[in-house]
Amino acid sequence: FENSLDKSVPEILPPALDASSEPPPLFDGVTRLYTYYGCPFAQRVWITRNFKGLQDKIKLVGIDLSNRPAWYAEKVYPPNKVPALEHNGKIIGESLDLIKYLDSNFEGPSLLPDDPAKKQLAEELFAYTDTFTGTVFSAFKGDAVKEAPAFDHLEAALSKFDDGPFFLGDRFSQVDIAYIPFVERFQIFLSEVFKYDITEGRQKLAAWIEELNKLEAYKQTKLEGTKAQVVEVYSKRFLGK
Description:
single chain, four-stranded mixed β-sheet, glutathione transferase, alpha+beta, about 50% helix, globular, 4 strands
């Protein structure tokens, strides 16, 4: 009898481990995703896990980033950040690498099409992720409208293939996963603080966000109170409030 999770409902998240917590039994054959439930980088890997139906195979281990356990850097992941994956006796980090790693090394629906043109766009958009987030983050410190070209870039990318609403057309892919945790937060912050709507005049982007909000694998990683948390964290970080 396999204790299988009902993958159609949000799972009960284990409490985050802090400085007072004992480590799990490390390298005992269990595959673990070390995460922080509010971190957009870690959310990328969490979405990938859920979409591929790996809730039974990959155990979530929450880490309290404001009060990290010493053993996390010492025994698990020396860079002392999330996400990190414990798999087959080794630890792997970096969210974009982990999206690809989960897709290549685990069962479940593939998150990359065979079409060479779509694969090429996927690589280009992967390479653009840091530019995208950096551009928007820097705009938070000044004039929010300055980040408009970053969202125009996404609108243009979403227009490349007309066979569906996703970046690579008809199929949800690694690329959608790479962008949605950040777009979600940017949309909240720009709307709430700057009264700027990222979807205005960007029909494809609006349709993409709407489509992703129907997807269980993503919805299950969105936390209650995200809006207030995003406004608080980004206001403190970028506006000094």
